[in-house]
Amino acid sequence: MPRAPISTHRISRHVNRPLQDWLEFAGLSAVAVIVRNLAFEQLRPIADTIGSIAYWLDRRGRATALANLEAAFPEKFSRSRKHWIARGSYRTFARTMLELFWAPNITEEFVDQQIVFSGLEHDPCHGDTPCATIYCCIHYGNFEWLSLVIAYSITRMPVIAQKFRNPHLGPLFDSLRSSTGNQIIPQERAMLKMLKHLKAGGKFGLLIDLNIDPREGGVPLNTFDGLIASVTPAHVALAQRTGASIVPVECLPLPDGRYNIVHHPPIECPSDATLTTLAQKCWDSLEPGIKAHPECWLWPYKHWRYKPRSGADRYPPYANHNNRFDSLIAPD
C-alpha cells in the first residue's frame, strides 16, 4: 500500500493560543513515549477501553454515528446493533491511533508475524521496479498502517505532510508516519509533485474523503445504494494523466490481533472515461468491506454534509442543501 495517505481534512483557521498548543503537544508526546514502550499485545485491550469510554462521553459523535448508520442501512439493524457497530467504530479508531504511536517499533520481522497480505498478485507493480501506481483507501480499519507496513511489502513511498491547527503537532505525526523509512514532503504544491513522481514510475497513496466541498472540484459518488457524496477526483485525474494504475487497499483487523491488508484488482483509467465513473469504481471496490465489517469504518465522521433538494429523506440530519451540490449531481 501507499507510504502515506494524503489527508484531505480541512484545517481550521489558527487562533493564537501558544500555551494550549504546547500543552497539547507535550501531552501527545508523552503518550507517544508511553505507548512505544508497551507490548503490541497490550494495545488492543487498552484501545477497546478508551474507545468505549469515548463513545459514551462523546454525545455529538455518537449521535452522528447512529444517524450515519441509519442513513446507510435504513431499518437494517436493531437499535442495540447500531450501538454495537458505532462503539466498535470508536474502538477501531482508538486502536488505529495507539498503533500509530507504536509504529516506530515496526520491523520487517514484525510485519512477517503480524500482517497477512491478500491480493498481492493483483498488484501490477509489486516491488521496487518503476511502475506508476496510486493506492487509494478510506477511513476503514487501520488506515494509518497502510502507509507504514507496505514499505516492507511494496516499497517506500512519499508521505504528504499533514497540516494541523496546532503547528507543533506536524513534526510529531510526520516522524510517526515516516518511521518505516518514507520521505515526508511538504503539502504545498503536493499534487504537482505527485504528478512528477508518477510520471517517473513512482507510487503513492491517497485517503479518499467523502465530503469535499463541491466548490473544490468534487465529483458525485453513489454510496450505499443512494446516498450521494461529493468526493475528490484527484486520484483518478492523476492516473489518467500519467497512465498509472489505481489499486484500492484496506487494512482489516483479524480476531487473533493481526491485520489483513487486502489489495483489490487494479483499476485502469483510460483517458476517455469520466472522472465520476472512475471514482465510482474505486469506491465500489471498497464499499463491500464496510458492509461486511461496518464496525471498522469511521461512522462518527460527517460523511454526507450535502444533500439534494429532492429525494433527501435518507440523509442524516446534519446534511444541508447546497446549490453547487445540486448542480454537481444534476444529470448531464
What is the number of helical segments per DSSP (H or I, 4+ residues)? 11
End-to-end CA span: 35 Å
Largest sheet: 5 strands, mixed
Query: Which stretches are poorly predicted, pLDDT < 50 over at least 5 residues?
Result: 1-14
| Global Rg | 19 Å
Q: How much helical structure, as a percent, in the residues? A: 40-55%
What structural class do you assign from the helix and strand content? alpha/beta
Order of helices and strands: HHHHHEEHEHEHEEEHEEHEEH
Number of β-strand runs: 11
Overall, the morphology is: globular
Q: Please, what is the average pLDDT? A: 88
- What proportion strand? 5-15%
Instruction: For the largest sheet, list the strands in their spatial order.
Output: 1-9-8-2-5
Q: Could you explain the architecture of this structure?
A:
The protein is of the alpha/beta class and 332 residues long. The protein has helices at residues 18-36, 40-57, 59-72, 79-102, 108-114, 143-153, 169-177, 190-199, 234-242, 275-292, 323-329, and strands at 115-118, 133-137, 158-160, 183-185, 203-207, 219-223, 227-231, 245-253, 259-263, 306-307, 320-321. It has a domain at 107-329. 44% of the residues lie in helices and 14% in strands. The strands form four sheets. It has a five-stranded mixed sheet, with helices on both faces. Mean pLDDT is 88; it is low at 1-14.
